[in-house]
Amino acid sequence: MAGTTTGIPANVTQGSKTKGGVGESMLRPDGTLKVTGEFAYSSDMWHEEMLWGQALRSTVAHAEIVSIDTSEALAMSGVYAVLTADDLPAAKNYGMEYQDTPVLAYGKVRHHGEPIALVAADHPETARRAAAKIKIEYRELPVITDEASATAPDAVLVHENRGDHHAGHVPHPNIVHRQPIIRGDAAEAAKKADVIVKGEYTFGMQDQAFLGPESGLAVPAEDGGVDLYVATQWLHSDLKQIAPCLGLPEEKVRMTMAGVGGAFGGREDISMQILASVLALRTGKPVKMVYNRYESFFGHVHRHPAKLYYEHGATRDGKLTHMKCKIVLDGGAYMSSTPSVVGNASSLSVGPYVIDDVEIEAIGLYTNNPPCGAMRGFGAVQACFAYEAQMDKVAAELGMDPVEFRQKNAMEQGTIMPTGQPVDSPAPVAELLRRVKARPMPPERQWESSEGADVRALPGGLSNTTHGEGVVRGVGYAVGIKNVGFSEGFDDYSTAKIRIEVINGEAVATVHTAAAEVGQGGVTIHAQIARTELGVQQVTIAPADTQVGSAGSTSAGRQTYMTGGAIKNSCEIVREKVLEIGRRKFGSYHPAWASAELLLEGGKVVTDGGEALASLVDVLEDEAVEVEEEFRHRPTQAFDLRTGQGNGHVQYAFAAHRAVVEVDTELGLVKVIELACAQDVGKAVNPLSVIGQIQGGTTQGLGVAVMEEIIVDPKTAKVKNPSFTDYLLPTILDTPTIPVDYLELADPHAPYGVRGIGEAPTLSSTPAVLAAIRAATGLELNKTPVRPEHLTGT
Amino acid sequence: MRVNFTVNGRPQEADDVWEGESLLYVLRERMGLPGSKNACEQGECGSCTVRLDGVPVCSCLVAAGQVEGREVTTVEGLADYAKHRQSAHPGGGCASGACGTSLQDAQQWTAKGQDGQTGEGTELSPIQQAFIDAGAVQCGFCTPGLLVAADELLERNDQPSDADIREALSGNLCRCTGYEKILDAVRLAAARQGEAV
Q1: Phi/psi zone of residue A334: left (φ > 0), alpha (ψ -120 to 50 degrees), beta?
Q2: ipTM of the complex, rounded to two decimals
Q3: Cβ B132–A28 below 8 Å, yes or no?
Q4: The pTM is what?
Q5: CB contact, 8 Å: A516 with chain B?
């Protein structure tokens, strides 16, 4: 009986497995709320007497601000506040790695869409109209838009007085960061090459295009602080940046995660957090702020567009001799995470191949283009697009099968990276390629039938004007390597608070972390881990907030590894404490308490032989055990600034794709028929969400291959397509079947052997589609996205 | 202006509606029904899809005044709508007035109990259940619009082909899933519907 401590409970003799643990396909705990419309996303927040915040943004890319006149806006009925940078209470800049981004522009604007003024009003339309009444006089400056204009000796400087720690190392003040990697002797090795292949590649600016807009609610508190409900990827990083700008100590800025409608890196940087808080503190009223889609395109950083220059050499028997490359990443007007993107692009620029002699240089630019930062794949995506195109070119030059050529040069466990770091866990590159290649091909010309063509299945679908006369098929392959977690010596950790107690006669665990659930399924696996470690069926996931230690960012594929690791760690300590209580209460009744390996399973304490010693209910009674612990992965090192050497990465993830496309060569339209993926996931904690992540990542790579690009006018640096009408995303008609084949080769260094999953499939999907289109058309196609005019030559 | 219309079977009256306000705004900000989502507010993403007299529309493109005297069904009323599909006047789903999420509810949100079983006591339509079971929900922001569109598809075509499903859902963007599991969900709901008959 529960509550007794007088003997071994008679009803506990045999252990039973806890259901819903690590490795099982589990359904989302927030699924029901999400399908009924009850789940509260950040744009759904509501508070009595709440005001609406609206920013006014720059209409030019680079200019001095001569004057701002807010009088007409302030005079409008329903307007409570109109603020400019002069009204900011404390620090005027924020930033993740370096604080170079103004909350509101002062003195200068450096990119199109930079926020300059703020309005709070009682209706969103009043706020928009008031913002439109603010008059700003600009004195326009020349715009820096590419490497040539940025690094010219007399170039206008995007930031005149740089104080960041990269400033001393870069060859020009408009270069944010430069990372060379030199290993072996590429010039000498090139002499052994029978063929040398060069290529220039352009990767367009992609947007995360998460569906839930930047939004949240700031509520002024009685203690002079603010309570902030927002969608973000990293509460504690936000907090560190917000508090100084509000002139408040961190404990007076209390942040709670609101429902997140997708992120993909676009919520790593601050968006409306400070703006809404400033308005709330100024007006003394709750302020809700919701970007519309137009503003969202200006309100977050994008994926770095890139120029990539590659040279590969190979011997006649198909071995790569050397590689030289230069990667130019456009970071836009502010730093954001550009230095880390540069580090990734350079250290992963060789791809998953063995090349001992390399000469690599990656740079990130300051320009007046939109700021760029984190997006799924983070620097590895751009490089993969280029090196995979190069692999096809070299194979063609040698007359070899492109997959066999890749397999011949594929890295494996033990390979040394160009940074000198050994790959010390499984790296099944050749096997992943084999798996996608071995898959049966989808039938050809599926749109044809005896009655004619089903135009819905043709490239272009219902809008097609042919019957498939000019349709040709192509098949392409690609494979990629992505680092997992934060690299280059970053002190990366996560925290989890675990509590176990008896509620309504049942042992219940509560998991409290600050980890952002952005749709990837963290909340599901957190419960699975707690169940596995503590042997309880009921697990409650507490809302993420800043009342518990940092979980780090939900990015870089790190959250299952890191917060999963923190939960596992904390649970292990909880388990020990529970067993201590058990020994104290029941130890004298059974020798196994002292001698055997004890586990928690099925709500009981059991021996490793499966004998049950006590139920958790009896052990705990009215005691609760609570533990808050941090988890760190093994340390990494910064890359040497001259040679790029250093054990910079925590872990690597690998994925391969095979794309099958049909191209209407008359219309210049592409239909991707199938995009098969094979990936090593280390350990599938929740197979259902593993497949969902791989399919989602694959589709984002497909998007950039054939349609997604933020188009910036090279003369004015103005964004031309900030809407879902003009920035095209793959629909269900554009997306093919995505069969997924995953391997589980455990990483011995990671909790449960897990390997980051979310990012790798975004890498190889793009070059696989490009390779397939090239195979179909014979065209060179060195730019993303491929547009109809590239295929028809018009 | 004042607008009178029926939402999920319950007569509603909205006062002081500005002429330019969309049905989406009125639902979300005046009726406390935030289930219809505001992703593009331009008719491109389908996240705000509701049924207006049975026809799926992007509520962001419908002026509030246009719904005077008409019937609107949102994701909040979907389960009830599906249950009373044959009835001329579906309704009662929001009779308690408890649709939507207050700040207090939002703050108190916790995912309790066993995965996938947190909706104990919540009655779901077949398509809602299928989306959960197939893993078609990730961030979930597109989900309400997709559910309304998919439910309407299954109402008029109980055994849709893949091409039919793709055509019916082509106005709904999803950025997380890659759509494969959404297709699975619609197929699953159709199969279950077939079994039930």
Answers
A1: beta
A2: 0.95
A3: yes
A4: 0.94
A5: no
